[in-house]
Amino acid sequence: MKILVVNCGSSSVKYQFIDMNGEKVLCKGLAERIGIEGGRLVHRVNNDKHVIERNMKDHEEALKLVLDVLVDPEIGVIKDLSEIDAVGHRVVHGAERFASSVLIDEEVMKALEENVHLAPLHNPPNILGIKAIQKLLPKVPNVGVFDTAFHQSMPKKAYLYALPYELYEKYRIRRYGFHGTSHRYVSKRAAEILGRDYYDFKVITCHLGNGASIAAVRHGKSIDTSMGFTPLEGLVMGTRCGDIDPAIVIYLQQNLGMSVEKVYDLLNKKSGMLGLTNNLSSDMRDIEDAAQSGNEIAQLALDIYVYRIAKYIGAYAAAMNGVDAIVFTAGVGENSPYVREKVCEYLGFLGVKIDKQLNDVKGVERIISTPDSKVAVLIVPTNEELVIARDTKYIVENKVKELKLF
């Protein structure tokens, strides 16, 4: 079975085409600047990179270009579109309606439309991508895999806010959590690497990228996670503020005269590491370089970033009454030995010890704790596309409506 995995952003389409016989990535790529001048498609086959400069007015046009490239006689990987057996879509927000991956039909599309208000930046392009594929490949089954689904196992004590209960009952205001597909993959992979039973295993997974979140996974289920009603809550991120006193929002509006839109833009796009470094950068590589060169504000930002991660790890170790493993993943988690080392320096109370030589790597799967560490520490490169492909394969082959996670 060959599966096309699609991840649609507001002005981009990221894709992978995977042969599930051996789980081999045949090609992958990114169509970017959709609806903007200077559009292009970057298509990769093995180590070969092909760039097609072309403006794309919408997601349908972008996906049409992707499909054309897949069957291109020179840079394609299949002879005919009939070789695409299914399409798996990353969908950011499934709310409470979806606790698992599902076969997309009219009922699911209606539910996705109803959830748009919960993820107004993410769900609309996800929906556009699904509709475009349905039009371009009308006979091919589509499966939705939700960022929020893995966290639907959280108990009420973890996901409810201390707000009037009717706000949850009427409007479903609660913690949802995100990056669930990544947390699910790396937590299970960590158990495999360590030879542990996933369903008798306590692991804290740290997805540290431009967006960042931590999850407490006990016995194969997410019991808590740092992102909340939206992806703004929790850790310090590239441009997002993470946890702040909610009264700051009111202060900004009343005392600085900021509109709702300006506050939203400030907290999501101008805060985090970008804001802390006085707009130096939101990229951890730039900030680490600046700190090493003596930039005090960059060093302070790094200290805050690391401190927040360590606090969450400590809290989740308490929430699970212990922890067997801690996993670092995503762009920063996989590629910053500095961040991993500094986080682990806070965790001596858990018996964490890392080997600095083993930690001095980027982008590899590896145990970096010492043999006598009471808690295993690992780097596990995330692979959300593979999870989406696996779920899609299972649903299509077994002809079921959904894949039960719990």
From TrEMBL:
Q: According to UniProt, where does the site described as Transition state stabilizer lie?
A: 179, 240
Which reaction is recorded as catalysed by this protein? Answer: acetate + ATP = acetyl phosphate + ADP
Keyword vocabulary terms for this entry: ATP-binding, Cytoplasm, Kinase, Magnesium, Metal-binding, Nucleotide-binding, Transferase
This protein's pathway:
Metabolic intermediate biosynthesis; acetyl-CoA biosynthesis; acetyl-CoA from acetate: step 1/2
Q: How is the cofactor bound?
A: Mg(2+). Can also accept Mn(2+).
EC number(s): the record gives 2.7.2.1
The UniProt annotation places substrate binding at: 90
Q: Which GO terms describe its molecular function?
A: acetate kinase activity; ATP binding; magnesium ion binding
| Keyword Protein biosynthesis applies | no
Q: Does the keyword Translocase apply?
A: no
> Which InterPro entries does the record cross-reference, listed alphabetically?
Ac/propionate_kinase, Aliphatic_acid_kin_short-chain, Aliphatic_acid_kinase_CS, ATPase_NBD
> Which leading EC class covers this enzyme?
transferase
A GO-annotated cellular component: cytoplasm
- Mostly located where? cytoplasm
The entry's Mg(2+)-binding residues are 7, 384
Q: Which residues bind ATP?
A: 14, 207-211, 283-285, 331-335
Q: Which residues form the active site?
A: 147
BP GO annotations: acetate metabolic process; acetyl-CoA biosynthetic process
Q: Which cofactor does it need?
A: Mg(2+); Mn(2+)
* Domain of life the protein comes from: Bacteria
The listed locations are: Cytoplasm
Give the protein's function.
Catalyzes the formation of acetyl phosphate from acetate and ATP. Can also catalyze the reverse reaction.
Q: Which family does the record claim for this protein?
A: Belongs to the acetokinase family.
Quaternary structure annotation from Swiss-Prot or TrEMBL: Homodimer.
Protein name from the UniProt record: Acetate kinase
Species annotation: Pseudothermotoga hypogea
High-level lineage:
Bacteria, Thermotogati, Thermotogota, Thermotogae, Thermotogales
Instruction: State the encoding gene.
Output: ackA
